[in-house]
Design brief:
Number of strands: 12
CATH topology of the largest domain: Isopropylmalate Dehydrogenase
CATH architecture of the largest domain: 3-Layer(aba) Sandwich
Strand order of the largest sheet: 2-1-3-12-11-4-5-10-8-9
Shape: globular
CATH superfamily of the largest domain: Isopropylmalate Dehydrogenase
Helix content: 40-55%
Distance between the termini: 20 Å
Radius of gyration: 20 Å
Largest sheet: 10 strands, mixed
């Protein structure tokens, strides 16, 4: 029997409520598909920081490196500087484990009342790939005499040939496996060094994939097209900051950020990848039992697919679709269902899917 060791970091806020629902689903589908999972839970979070002064212990990355995958909720609370979770946890994990692809599917699930009145699930089905370890989020910069009239802040983006090329190859390979269309979302008409270099390397890598159509689109046009013509997209590849913004817009197209899954991927599988819902810790609704667990559950499906358990991942997605089709929604979608009710309903549907196979 194939076995996987999973590190679980629920984090803060609603992460403590939705990640357990995902684990219930993982256990059920593992039993159906004949593989096993063990978990080790870590308390690392903004709450842990309040208690210890650290988001993880000194050997935290070494501990995480022993696992097959990382299942993460969300980090952050109102009384902790909101820069710190990224600097001291998220960025450290992504960079240390070379998770250079952030993978975010954008799909309008049948039955969800999406915000675009003339668009159907057939129109909204694409993947946003965000370069995840360099670019605009490189943390290179400083404040110089910030309190003086002549003070200034300097933030430097880092775009390397290696970083762009490896990310571009992943993007072209994914596009090849889908509809053969890749959109490079850029801003090279104004960022005349970094993004020109980015575009140039995408074109060079594209020569290795003659079966994939490469389209260049400026981010302002892409933002408008998300709303007006989402059907034109299949695979989108873009930079760290642009991808961060567009992927939340993509979550909105799905009807709620509570639906959107994501993976921080190390494609070579030399290191563990990390899977997480796209939303934050939502302290305003934490503890009320009303958070939508679908984003976390769908992220668990992405994790299984990455580990090679594609049939199990597909069953989870089918069960999610079946529950949504029933009109069982949490408050973010206008419903009254609780976190637990959604999790239990997906479990029930998973049993039906499993019996039907």
């Amino acid at each position: 029997m194939t076995h996987y060791n999973i590190a679980v970091i629920p984090g803060d806020g609603i992460g403590q409520e939705i990640i357990p629902e995902g684990i219930n689903i993982l256990n059920a589908v593992a039993a159906q598909e004949g593989f096993s999972l063990t978990y080790k839970q870590f308390p690392w979070s903004a709450t842990y920081y309040k208690e210890t002064g650290k988001f993880m212990p000194e050997d935290g990355l070494e501990q995480l490196g022993a696992f097959d995958a990382l299942y993460f909720g969300a980090i952050g609370r109102p009384d902790v500087d909101d820069r710190l979770p990224a600097i001291r946890y998220t960025f450290r994990v992504r960079k240390h484990f070379h998770q250079y692809v952030n993978y975010r599917p954008v799909r309008l699930v049948p039955g969800v009342p999406g915000p675009l009145r003339n668009k159907s699930p057939e129109d909204i089905d694409f993947v946003i790939l965000r370069e995840n370890t360099e670019g605009e989020f490189s943390e290179v910069g400083d404040f110089v005499n910030p309190e003086r009239p002549e003070g200034f802040a300097l933030q430097t983006s880092i775009f390397t040939r290696k970083g762009i090329e490896r990310f571009a190859h992943y993007a072209f390979q994914l596009a090849r496996s889908r509809k053969g269309h890749l959109t490079n979302v850029t801003k090279s008409n104004t960022l005349i060094h970094s993004m020109v270099y980015w575009d140039r390397l995408f074109e060079e890598v594209g020569e290795h994939y003659p079966d994939v159509t490469l389209e260049k689109m400026y981010v302002d046009n892409a933002s408008a097209s998300f709303v007006l013509r989402p059907e034109r997209f299949d695979v989108i590849a873009t930079t760290n900051m642009i991808g961060d913004i567009l992927s939340d817009l993509g979550g909105a197209l799905m009807g709620s950020l509570g639906l959107g899954p994501s993976g921080n991927i190390n494609p070579e599988k030399d290191h563990p990848s990390m899977f997480e819902p796209i939303h934050g810790s939502a302290p305003d609704i934490a503890g009320q039992g009303i958070a939508n667990p679908i984003s976390a559950i769908w992220s668990a499906a992405l994790m299984l697919d990455h580990l090679g358990e594609s049939a199990a991942a597909a069953k989870i997605e089918q069960a999610i679709y079946a529950v949504v089709a029933q009109g069982l929604f949490t408050a973010d979608l206008g419903g009254t269902a609780t976190t637990r009710q959604i999790g239990d309903a997906i479990l029930e549907q998973l049993a039906t899917v499993g019996n039907a196979v």
